[in-house]
Amino acid sequence: MLRTLLPAVLALTLTAGSAMAEARIRVSASIVPIHGLVAAVMEDVAEPDLILPPGASPHGYALRPSGALALSRADVIFRVGPSLEAFLNRPLANISKKARVVELIDAPGMRLLPVRDNEAFEPHDHDHGEHADHDGHDDHEKHADHDGHDDHEKHADHDGHDDHEKHADHDGHEGEADQHVWLDPQNAIAIVRHVAEVLGEADPTNASIYSANATRTIRRLNELEARTADRVASVTGRPFIVFHDAYQYFENRFGLSAAGSIAINPEVAPGARQISLIRSRITEQNIHCVLAEPQFNSDIVKALAGYGGISVGVIDPVGTDIGGESNAYMTMIERLASELATCLSLDD
Q1: Cα–Cα nearest to 318, from 59, 65, 107
Q2: Contacts of 74 (CB under 8 A, 6+ apart)
Q3: Per the count of CB atoms within 10 A, which of 134, 139, 216, 256 is most buried?
């Protein structure tokens, strides 16, 4: 009799568990790495919608009808900030006010760096090597009061957020913060914590699942950071050229040293002065690695490589060819580290 009842009891238990893990909200995330982190927090509950499709760049993208539909249905929308995903500014100004728009650049604990001048790529005061102590990143404790900031009750004023002047004081920096924040795994941890908190508030029925998923994801991100540090350890300090300046958070975390970027604006072909500047740097700093990006025309990169007998790698800050799975962020960082280390190791 007991043997007969056990399968039925187990089935009922699993059914009840599945019902408890049904999301009460619809969630959208802007780009692949952010979507991957949100998906990891939502694992076993629901799948967030990805707004920017794989293969596209947030620079100059035009929102498709499918993306606009996902936005219109969303209860919570995660994005980095208005300067990075500028294609979302106008649509977000027009969506229903029921949606909570969360700008992750304002997440508590986020460590920000200023946008740097392409003619002033200076080595950072690197923080790498202290991975064990990063869980308590308190660089931005002043963000602890931002809970009300994320609610974005004034969606109609979104267009006015573009200057983001409030970021001018982060770490005492002048000007706008570089918005490629996710390329520091410790910033990814800050994102995961904040996403779990926001989702727990929006969907309290599943708050414990979001919290448990966040804890597991943070552990994996710390492990990812340690693996990445090991992967690039032999090439730290070697200069390289990037297509556009998207990687300083990664550089700063792992002791790497980009010497400049080919394009100031990735949507605009660099002029003769910029090409001349990069060529001078290649010669003066004996640079042997130039890194292209899959979203943009690589002809200029190939021309520079031919000019100096340089190795060309391809790195991708947004995971253009990675699907929208919960492991997307980990995959993107591992690929970036591997490609960069390979390109730089050819100096040997």
Answers
A1: 59
A2: 26, 27, 28, 49, 95, 99
A3: 256
What residue ranges of the chain have pLDDT lower than 70? 1-21, 96, 118-120, 122-175, 267, 307-308, 347-348
Number of domains within the chain? 1
Does 294 map to a domain?
Answer: yes
The CATH number of whichever domain residue 305 belongs to comes to 3.40.50.1980
Four-CA torsion 82, 85, 91, 93, nearest 10 degrees: -10
Helix (H) or strand (E) holding 77: strand 76-79
Q: Show the tokens assigned to 346.
A: 């050819």
Q: How many CB atoms lie within 10 A of CB 185?
A: 27
The 10s digit of each residue's pLDDT in 117-159 is 866 576 545 454 444 344 434 444 333 343 333 443 333 333 3
pLDDT value of position 59: 77
Helix (H, G, I), strand (E, B) or coil at 295: coil
CB 58 within 8 A of CB 85: yes
244 forms beta bridges with 263
Backbone angles phi, psi at 244, to 5 degrees: -140, 160
- pTM for the structure as a whole: 0.79
Secondary structure in 3-state letters for 235-274: HCCCEEEEEECCCHHHHHHHCCEEEEEEECCCCCCCCHHH
C-beta of residue 139 within 8 angstroms of C-beta of residue 79: no
Does residue 259 form part of some domain? yes
In a domain, 234, yes or no: yes
Full DSSP string of 79-135: ES-TTTTGGGHHHHHHS-TTSEEEEGGG-TT----BPPPTT--------TT-GGGGG
Instruction: Give CA 93 to chain center in angstroms.
Output: 23
Instruction: Note down the domain range covering 336.
Output: 230-345
Question: Is 183 part of a structural domain of the chain?
Answer: no
For tokens 């986020």, name the residue.
110
Query: Measured between alpha carbons, how far is 113 from 184 in angstroms, rounded to an integer?
Result: 11
What is the rounded distance in angstroms from the CA atom of residue 273 to the CA atom of residue 223?
42
Q: What per-residue confidence (pLDDT) applies to 2?
A: 42
